[in-house]
Amino acid sequence: MVVQAEGPAETPGRLSNADLAPTTAAQATWRTWDIFCLWMTSAHSLGSYGFAVGMLALGLTGWQTLLALFTGVLVLWAGSNLIGVAGQRVGVPFPVFARATFGVFGANIPALLRGLVAIFWYGIQTYLASTAVIVLLLRLDPGLRSWTEPTFLGLHALGWAAFLSLWTVQLVILNYGMEVVRKVSDVAGPVVWIGMIALAIWMLDGVGWSIDFGARAGAPLSAGSAVLAFTGVVFLMVAFMAGPLVNYADFARFAPSRRAILRGNALGIPFNETAFVVISIIISLTALKKYGSAMTDPVALVADIDSDAIVVVAAILFAIATVGINVVLNFVSPSYDISNVAPKYISFRTGGIITALLSVAVLPWKIWGNEAAIVYFLGGVGALMGPVFGILVVDYYLLRRQHTDTTDLYSESTGGAYYYTRGFNPAALISLGISGAAAVAIALLPWAQSMTALSWPTGAVLGGALMYALGRGRRGASRAAPS
């Protein structure tokens, strides 16, 4: 059997459906190139560009920011290997994989937390892609400006048309299943490179092909402050990708071998993500020189280009890439996570429809324009991804020693290995509660603002340590109990 899932492929019952069942050999089609494109697609977004450029505002120079982001990429790479290898070996999606740690019912807690963040970001990314479409439409037909007033629920008619068009395209893609998602990822990842390289060339030409990597967007920092800012950028980079990292099993399960995962990760993360960071910083430093500020929105830069042809091509490329990114990062995860709540009634496709509807209901353009909503709600929930990561990794590698009984992942029997206490694992939930509270406090409380960037590593380390202590004690008690 190509995929090393331990247990039978047939898993009837209330906890399973065809989408949540273990991966079969025939479904293991995500090879090294596909994994590489998956991470390429994950990195190549308007949000990723904005994040990388935003790090310059912390006061580091261009080269210091590059080095810090690269360090963060290496941490992300290590984490992806841990989750990816485990996901490929067990061969099940993230919410099912989490059942071994949190219990067959308890897994819904981390799954829905991850799904909730993804739903909001799905709507936000769709909105950001629609802004590229609007730039394209206005350049082709300036008369469409009459559609930009008035607004309904905060969005004008042209915005609604662009948003709902992209929303529909993504829903159609997901309706065809994970094999089509793989093909979209293979296209979307490379496509954005064309747009980013073209934009970099145009920007460099505009400043005489000369940039200063010693430039900074913020005020100069003292040595101590620079170290703190550097450390902050490292872990903010990891936190930015914390969601996709946690649910990586959703994709790793389709890889035919451990080698495909490791090689795809190596090409897609330290190699490709570093390259994307470099080109993002180059574009931002040229913008700093040309406009006096490091512009965080590449669409705004594209809109400033004199050539209609270049604007049209760039806008199309950004829109296509963002759609692909959104499907991979923010559509697949909640589709599985929602399906896991009631597998008998909710399929992967039905979960996708629910995700799509919720993404409109939250009015993502209002959230994107509200810094408090981004920081306090999405930042707070997102901070919980560190504890989830630490708990999963410690349980799989240190407590269970890479052993998973796949059959029991779908068993409601009180004697099942992952039934624990009424379907919930107290050790994992206590660990998540304590470490999650610490991570959220560091992320959000005013007195902890200087440590905000340490939310992810604090949550991951504390969650893992608590899981090891509590889980080891439970294992010992289980061995001592009479049979």
Q: What is the secondary structure topology, with strand pairs?
A:
Elements: H1 32-43, H2 46-54, H3 62-90, H4 94-97, H5 99-102, H6 108-140, E1 151-152, E2 155-156, H7 157-175, H8 178-206, H9 223-240, H10 242-246, H11 249-252, H12 258-291, H13 298-303, H14 308-341, H15 348-361, H16 364-368, H17 371-382, H18 385-399, H19 426-444, H20 455-480
Antiparallel strand pairs: 1-2
Protein name: Putative allantoin permease
Membrane topology: Multi-pass membrane protein
Family: Belongs to the purine-cytosine permease (2.A.39) family.
Percentage of residues assigned to helices: 55-70%
**Unreliable sequence segments:** 1-11, 476-483
**What is the architecture at the second tier of CATH?**
Orthogonal Bundle
Mean pLDDT: 83
Question: What descriptors fit this protein?
Answer:
single chain; mainly alpha; Hydantoin permease; 69% helix
Write a concise synopsis of the structure shown.
GO terms for molecular function: nucleobase transmembrane transporter activity. The chain has 20 helices and 2 strands.
How would you describe this structure to a colleague?
It comes from Mycobacteroides franklinii. The chain is mainly α and 483 residues long. The chain has one domain (25-369): Hydantoin permease, CATH 1.10.4160.10. The chain is built from 20 helices and two strands. A two-stranded antiparallel ribbon has the order 1-2. A hairpin with a 2-residue loop joins β1 (151-152) and β2 (155-156). α3 runs antiparallel to α12 and α8 (178-206) runs parallel beside α12 (258-291). The chain starts with 31 loop residues before the first helix and ends with a helix. Mean pLDDT is 83; it is low at 1-11 and 476-483.
